[in-house]
Amino acid sequence: MSNSPSRPATIEDVAKIAGVSIATVSRAIRMPEKVAESTRKKVTAAIARTGYTANAMAQNLRMQRSKMVMVLAHSIADPNFPGILIGLEKAANARGYGVLIGNTEANVDSEEKYLRFLSTGMVDGLLLLTGHLPVAGWGKSPPNTFPATVAVSRPVSQDKIAYVGVDDVGGTKLATEYLISLGHEQIAFISGQQGDIVSEMRYQGYCNALTSHFKRSSPWRVAGDGTHEGGRAAIERLFIRDTLPTAFVCYNDDTAIGVISALRARGLNVPRDFSVIGFDDIQFASSMNPSLTTIRQPRVMIGETAMNKLLDRLAGGVDEAEDELLHGDLIVRESCSSPRMEPLA
């Protein structure tokens, strides 16, 4: 439904879109705890769609707790998202909160649409998995009406927003040190997209490991984009060179899978000819051939920790933007071994 700029949305508009009575809309706004969750969600969506805010009911609503939290995700197809969502919902349900999911696909229009939920007061807090504040036009500081917010999986460059995620630096340092323990010295890092903050943190962990173990560390960075095809392309570019590494630390598992695929297409064996290690431990990592050695993210725990941090703030807890980094575990499988003794023919 599209409203004329000269006519603000009315409660009748909301009722019509939600398919409920005006009385039900009123009850959902004033006493949401007395309305079925499915009905409340319909009313919430209708309010967001119409932009129904400029009335006394919406003002009353903003003074109450909606008992709902919004999760904005870059893509629900991200293999890490389901595990994190399980943790988010588990912690929310334990404390009487519901979860709304916004799948933005990095689309500004989508972000603006979901922001209407915030402006109506239909959600109490926000969990950001996008790596940035919605709507870049806000600049460095969000408006005063911006709700309590916690960033998840990807930090946000805003001082007042706490971050919960895996220790990307420590995890990649652990992965690189494992390869070093097997005897590798010529280790390349295949990155994610240029400017990706998570990729930069993982590259830092890789560099830290080299610096700790070698007097003259020589970081070897190869550009990727975080996808299977990006891993394949990185290998093709590497094989133009005269010298090659003996092992690869990959930005994520998708990249590592692409690397292994490209090496096998050249008739090379993993791990006999090259060792490959990933990051994330996605579902496919254990079933591929060879099974992938990787760093496992504690996805469910990340979700639980982030939700509890947000709800603690809503309950009047300490309002400090303290980050929490969770330890990633090294999962040893079949894709790594000692370096080859003879050079490739």
From TrEMBL:
Q: Which Gene3D superfamilies match?
A: 3.40.50.2300, lambda repressor-like DNA-binding domains
Entry annotated with the keyword DNA-binding: yes
* Record key words, sorted: DNA-binding, Repressor, Transcription, Transcription regulation
Domain HTH lacI-type, residue spans = 9-63
CDD domains under this entry?
Answer: HTH_LacI
InterPro entries the UniProt entry points to: HTH_LacI, LacI/GalR-like_sensor, Lambda_DNA-bd_dom_sf, Peripla_BP_I
Concerning Pfam families, the annotation shows: LacI (PF00356), Peripla_BP_3 (PF13377)
Is Nucleotide-binding among the key words of this record?
no
Listed name of the protein:
Alanine racemase
The scientific name of the source species is Maritalea porphyrae
